[in-house]
Structures are given as structure tokens and as C-alpha cells.
Design brief:
Radius of gyration: 19 Å
Number of strands: 9
CATH class: Alpha Beta
CATH topology: Rossmann fold
Pfam families: TylF
Strand content: 15-25%
Structural class: alpha/beta
Protein name: Methyltransferase
Number of domains: 1
InterPro entries: SAM-dependent_MTases_sf, TylF_MeTrfase
């Protein structure tokens, strides 16, 4: 009976989030109701998923850079409480999301055969996902400082023409506190490897500084299907064999249009699109 009530509560929460996606952070405390039939508290709950299994970054032979990065993130970085919302005081709930970023960088550096390592992030905000990606890149002896990270963002509120349906009121004030100066400060330890592209997509893709001719990694977190598609059309032809592309918004409630354009774009491509329980998706370019 108790388990049935928990499941009904969760179902109600999911329906509410589907209709009003901006409620998602406020419903995150519901994780404390989640226990399996044996009464075991989950090892991880956050970012839309719950698991009783061992965490992948708890490994004596892998994950050292990630573990250090997650500690330094809170100590070193400045971020706006309003924009970061619920996760400002619960950053541990983003760890699976960030682990996937770190793992992707590791995979690219180890297995992609190229002489030029260009990484791209579209939708940077205050630099959290870029921080994990950059730590992994710098910490890998194969490339160390021999790489570039291109960072694309407007650091302004979303334009009306790009706002998802039914979310105009939410997005109109969600990113009004973003500041490229703070992002530069947050990522200052990597400054020699960074190239900032300040402006809206797609315009900024064709402006100075020049976009990279080839890429090994693309992370898109634009919260809108229109610029997501524009970024994909622009960077896909530049991806080298084995490149990885990560989509942060792919499976999240309220971003169904983003999922649709990504699915349609890749349905006839030779690589493989992996859909993750975090709501992210990863495309392995062949």
C-alpha cells in the first residue's frame, strides 16, 4: 500500500512536470519518497533519474579528475542562485549529467584519431558543463594543453522567436542575470584554450572569431529546438570520424520539439544516437 501511494505521487508529479516543465526543480525533493521494495535508499537521485546501483565515478582506477572537479566546482565558481535554482543547494543531483560529459571527453581523447582537438559547447551559461569537460581535457596527457574549446552563448535572455511553445513567461526572465565576465572568471584556469563566441545562434556561427573547421566534440544545451537544429546543421559536416555530440535537453519534459528535430536529423545518418535516463542523448559519429 505504501509503495502504491509513492508511485501514485510520482505519477502525479510527472504529469505536472509534463504540463508545466518549470516546476521540475521544485519537485526534486520528492526523491526522498523513493525507496525500492526492500526499503533501500537510492545511491543517486536527481536530474530526472533514480538509481540504487553503484556510482560510476566511485572507482580506484577511473574518475579521479571528475571527483576533484566536482569538489572544486562549488569552491571556485560563481553562479547566480536564481538561474541555477534548486540545484544551487543540491549540486550533487547534477553529477550523473556531468559524469556523462567527462566520460565523453575521455572517450574522444582516447579513441578519435586526429591531430587537431577542437571542442565546442553551444549554450554555456556560467560554465558548469564546460568546467567538467575542460578538466578532463587538461588532465589527459595525450592532449594536455594542445586543444581549443569554442564557447557559444548570447549571455542574454532567449529571443522570442526561439522560445519553446508555452514557456515564454518562464524563459523571459530565466537568463537575465547571465554575464560573460562571470563565465570567463569561472573558467579562468583554462583561458589559454578558450575561444568565446558571444551572440545568438545561428548568427554567431558565421561571425568572428572564426568557427573551427573540424570538431571532435559538440555539446548543445540551448533550451530551444530552433538554434539546436541550426547548430547541428552547421557543425555536423565538421565532425571528424568518431566525434561525439551530446544533447542536454533531448529527453526532458517541455522539450519535445528538441527531441523531434534531433531524431529527424540523425535518422538517416551513419552513426548511433544513444538516449540516456538523464534526459541527455549522445551521438557517436561514424
Amino acid at each position: 500500500m505504501v509503495e502504491d501511494r509513492r508511485r501514485k505521487l510520482l505519477d502525479s508529479g510527472r504529469k505536472l512536470v509534463k504540463k508545466y516543465p518549470y516546476f521540475r526543480p521544485f519537485l526534486a525533493p520528492g526523491k526522498f519518497f523513493l525507496k525500492n521494495s526492500n526499503g533501500i535508499k537510492p545511491r543517486f537521485s536527481g536530474w530526472g533519474m533514480t538509481s540504487n546501483h553503484e556510482l560510476p565515478w566511485n572507482d580506484n582506477y577511473q574518475g579521479e579528475i571528475f571527483r576533484k572537479a566536482k569538489q572544486d566546482l562549488i569552491k571556485q565558481m560563481t553562479f547566480d542562485k536564481k538561474q541555477f535554482g534548486y540545484y544551487y543547494s543540491h549540486p550533487e543531483e547534477l553529477l550523473w549529467r556531468h559524469w556523462n560529459i567527462s566520460y565523453a571527453i575521455n572517450w574522444v581523447v582516447r579513441f578519435v584519431k586526429t591531430t587537431e582537438y577542437n571542442f565546442v559547447e553551444c549554450g554555456v551559461g556560467q560554465g558548469f558543463t564546460a568546467f567538467f569537460a575542460l578538466r578532463e581535457a587538461v588532465g589527459n596527457a595525450k592532449i594536455s594543453s594542445n586543444f581549443s574549446m569554442h564557447l557559444y552563448d548570447s549571455w542574454k535572455i532567449m529571443r522570442d522567436q526561439d522560445m519553446p511553445k508555452g514557456m515564454k513567461d518562464y524563459w523571459a526572465s530565466s537568463y537575465d542575470k547571465l554575464d560573460i565576465t562571470i563565465t570567463r572568471q569561472n573558467l579562468n584556469e583554462f583561458k589559454n584554450n578558450l575561444i568565446f563566441h558571444n551572440g545568438y545562434i545561428p548568427e554567431s556561427l558565421f561571425e568572428e572569431p572564426k568557427a573551427p573547421d573540424t570538431i571532435v566534440y559538440l555539446h548543445i544545451d540551448l533550451n530551444s529546438h530552433k538554434p539546436t537544429l541550426e547548430a547541428l546543421k552547421f557543425f555536423y559536416p565538421r565532425a571528424v570520424h568518431g566525434a561525439i555530440m551530446i544533447f542536454d535537453d533531448y529527453g526532458h519534459a517541455g522539450f519535445e520539439e528538441t527531441k523531434m528535430v534531433i531524431d529527424e536529423f540523425f535518422h538517416d545518418k551513419p552513426g548511433l544516437l544513444q538516449k540516456l535516463p538523464t534526459g541527455q542523448a549522445i551521438y557517436y559519429h561514424n
